[in-house]
Design brief:
Strand order of the largest sheet: 1-2-4-3-5-6-7-8
Structural class: alpha/beta
CATH topology: Rossmann fold
Distance between the termini: 49 Å
Helix content: 25-40%
Number of helices: 9
Radius of gyration: 18 Å
Length: 306
Amino acid sequence: MIPVVNRIRQSHERSRANRAVAMLFAVAWGGCGTPYRQTTESYDPSLGDFGAVDVYQPEGPELRPGVVLIHGGGWTSGSKGDLAGDAAQLAAAGYFVANVNYRLSPAAQFPLPIQDVCCALAFVRTHASELGVDPSRVALLGYSAGGYLAEMVGLGATDQRLDCPSGTTGLPAAVLAGDAPADLLHLPSLGDGMVEAFVGMPQSTDPALYTADSPISHVGPQVPPFLLIHGTGDLFVSWTQSATLQRELVADGNSASLLLLSGAGHVLNAGPDFGGLNYVEDAIDTPEGWSAILQFLQQTLGAPPP
């Protein structure tokens, strides 16, 4: 059996290889790769670094479709740096990108991180002309806990009339979520009580609160198009969560697609004998996942200008 440390090292090597393949998809979509410049802005100065956003602006005078990236980490950890490679790939493909931080639990519990994403979206739209992005063509793309936040904002699950420095905003133009929890009531504890830290109390104390805080409880008609990507090897968030959400979205007359990737999972999963850990690719960190993401963005936002 390969030691866990070697498998972790292999995970980084495999991730770099996957990003190289994904960049080929981006370059194929955007020609030789669109030049861009990167800056760090603040969508809410009162939040300090939690209110920071890395902005990727492709060169050119035309307003571009945009993507707001939302990192994972079980609501308790992670930062925008986790998705820096994804942001660079999307910018090279010609998309404006805003890669955001948000407040983390247990200091910031539901619904504060959701509201932060709303405020980041409002920032992008309010400053659209200077950022070079079309405010009507901005999608949310999140992984794991970030996918949950994207789903909740896309479903209008938090008050859109927030006290954001950039004012209020409507729903995004599209939602993409990878390996995202959609039903907190039926979600195993992630790590050391991550779900409980986010909700603010044990499930046994108030199961109805876990239901109310779940994307599956906010599905209704006339929401943006959804693309859900999930690995069948995900032992932390079962692929059935995305499948159930997709089914409910379609039942209410919405456009929702589900891409299941055989063997893909949540970074580190139990090995076949449950006696060790195997690296399993993130669902959005695969060539298949990136191809689907780029196709979905073109279908819902339109192709970036050359």
